[in-house]
Specification:
Oligomer: single chain
Number of strands: 15
Number of helices: 20
Radius of gyration: 39 Å
Strand content: 15-25%
Distance between the termini: 25 Å
Shape: flat
Largest sheet: 6 strands, antiparallel
Number of domains: 2
Helix content: 55-70%
């Protein structure tokens, strides 16, 4: 669940800190108070697109931080699969928005926006008017049915996706290989030339680096020899050399070292220096003795380097790249030489893949139709509970002409919202308010199978009132028993069902406007209901009505709990 929301310098929000409760959290407030801004801040924290325009007037950046308390073991395992560990189930997601970029963190570690979105998908669903519109898209309908059908469908879809990817690659290959005999001969000649050139180069792993080192050494032979000669003159046994000087120093020190213990120690140190210098001079001498400059050898090495680099310029930057290309063209040559056999092989593979996809597709269709029938009954029942009069809901599954990564099924939701009316596609029948209720019906059906604990509903009350609003509030309360619900509403019937009630207020001080959010006591909640019911003037009668509404909501929740 979402335990805490912290927002700083976001639009007209100076700074807010909200502790959400379990079950049904209701947010109310005057129009323009900033209710959508609060929900918008949560969306941005979870990876929604962001603009620097959202930064308020109280600093150079905006911050949104969410603290989740995750108790579901499946969700924790899914987070571990993303290499995200929690401490006692606590997950902290934050975004800091500056003028040019955003800094995204999970549990203090910097992450990408895409990772934020993956985590968001495990922890929270946000349903606003835009999300309700997803019900109009058939692609969404397929995902709803599949999710309801369960893991067996997902396993089959995973296999289907693998077969379909292989199938598409094979079709692409067949299209590209459909060439004339003349083109095939020309292509074969060119590929054989490339193959011969690579093979004749006889590349050896690591050879280029070794050659570069040797060429660099031989190209600078005169400079190296001259420098080492001067070094040896400075450090050797010759007149004025360091070795000769140290030997003289040792003789002088040896004559007096027995006179003082400290002098003995100094003599020992100087002897170590003499030994080190002796070793150094021996290394120089051996290097110079073994250093033989051969101009012909240098030219040979340079020619070999040119050959290697020419091969790299044509066929790949590294030895591995060139070998991979060689393997690729060798396979192409094989296909071109045995073109007819290759075509037959591809067609055989194509038929085999089509057979596998057909078998899987039939299994998927059967499972989807079974799940669709169950889903029809459950959603129809949920719609009736949401004050639709004798609704009809149908999951229409028809075959597609070809294969897709998800099978061969076209799924579309059909609905009738009036008694006796024909079934039509959801988008042609349902109004905005009806779409909100249909989405709520779908979510209530999935309450038992969805592991996402937190659901946010914005504009769930669009286009509804009266008894319908009461039915929606009851359904929200039921849904809140299994999920944490955060709901923005303008309706008193829904607000009355709150387990935790927040008011969002717009405050003006010193010519500055800011949004604040605070939890309400039972008495304050009744007063807020009265405001919603009464408008400009709140009378005693309105207050009494608000109190009765809260009592009715409590009785309804108590009844539902029995």
């Amino acid at each position: 669940m979402l335990a805490n929301l912290h927002v700083k310098n976001f639009a007209i929000i100076d700074e807010i800190d909200v502790d959400f409760g379990r079950h049904l959290n209701i947010l109310t407030g005057e129009t323009g108070a900033g209710k959508s801004i609060v929900v918008g801040s949560i969306g941005i924290a979870l990876g929604a697109r962001v603009s620097s325009e959202i930064i308020g007037n109280h600093g150079d950046y905006a911050v949104v931080e969410l603290i989740f308390q995750i108790d579901d073991e499946d969700t924790l395992q899914a987070l571990r699969a993303l290499d995200i560990e929690t401490e006692e189930g606590q997950l902290v997601v934050s975004r800091k928005i500056t003028g040019s970029r955003s800094i995204n963190r999970i549990n203090g570690e910097s992450v990408s926006v895409s990772m934020i979105r993956k985590v968001a998908g495990l922890c929270m669903d946000i349903h606003g008017q835009h999300e309700h519109q997803s019900l109009l898209h058939k692609e969404y309908h397929l995902s709803v049915v599949d999710r309801f059908a369960g893991s067996e469908v997902e396993d089959l879809k995973s296999k289907m996706a693998g077969y379909y990817k292989e199938y598409r690659e094979l079709l692409h290959e067949l299209e590209n290989e459909s060439i004339s005999a003349e083109e095939r001969t020309r292509e074969l000649s060119f590929l054989e030339f490339e193959k011969k050139e690579i093979e004749e180069t006889k590349l050896i792993p690591g050879e280029e680096d070794k050659l570069e080192e040797q060429v660099r050494k031989l190209s600078n032979a005169s400079s190296i020899v001259e420098a080492l000669g001067k070094v040896y003159a400075c450090t050797g046994d010759g007149l004025g050399g360091s070795a000769d000087s140290i030997s003289q120093a040792l003789r002088q020190l040896g004559g007096v070292s027995s006179m003082d213990e400290k002098l003995t120690s100094m003599e020992s140190e100087l002897m170590d220096i003499e030994n080190l210098l002796s070793d150094f001079n021996r290394e120089i001498s051996e290097y110079m003795d073994g250093f033989v400059f051969n101009e012909a050898e240098l030219h040979q090495m340079e020619a070999r380097l040119d050959q290697i680099r020419n091969c790299q310029a044509k066929y790949g930057k590294s030895y591995e790249d060139i070998m991979s290309y060689l393997h690729e063209i060798t396979e192409k040559i094989r296909r071109l030489c045995d073109y007819e056999d290759y075509q037959k092989e591809c067609l055989h593979k194509k038929e085999a893949l089509e057979g596998k996809m057909s078998t899987l597709g039939s299994k998927l269709t059967k499972l989807r139709k079974t799940a669709g029938k169950k889903l029809e009954k459950k959603i129809t029942s949920a719609l009736e509970e949401l004050n639709f009069e004798k609704p009809k809901f149908s999951v229409n599954i028809t075959p597609l002409e070809g294969y897709t990564a998800e099978g061969r099924d076209d799924v579309e939701f059909l609905i009738s919202t009036n008694p006796g009316a024909e079934l039509y596609p959801l988008g042609k029948v349902a109004s905005g308010g009806e779409l909100s209720r249909v989405m709520l019906a779908v979510k209530s059906v999935f309450a038992d199978v969805d592991r996402i604990e937190t659901l946010i509903f914005d504009e769930i009350d669009v286009g509804i009132s009266g008894r319908t609003a009461q039915k929606v509030s009851e359904k929200m309360s039921i849904l809140g028993k299994e999920h944490q619900i955060i709901c923005i509403t303008h309706l008193a019937q829904i607000a009355a069902m709150a387990d935790t009630h927040f008011v969002i207020e717009k405050l003006v001080s010193e010519d500055m406007t800011r949004t604040n959010i605070r939890p309400l006591t039972e008495t304050e909640s009744e007063e807020e209901l009265a405001r919603i019911l009464g408008g400009v003037e709140i009378t005693d009668a309105v207050r009494t009505n608000a109190k009765e509404m809260k009592q009715l909501a409590k009785r309804q929740k108590d009844y539902a709990a029995v």
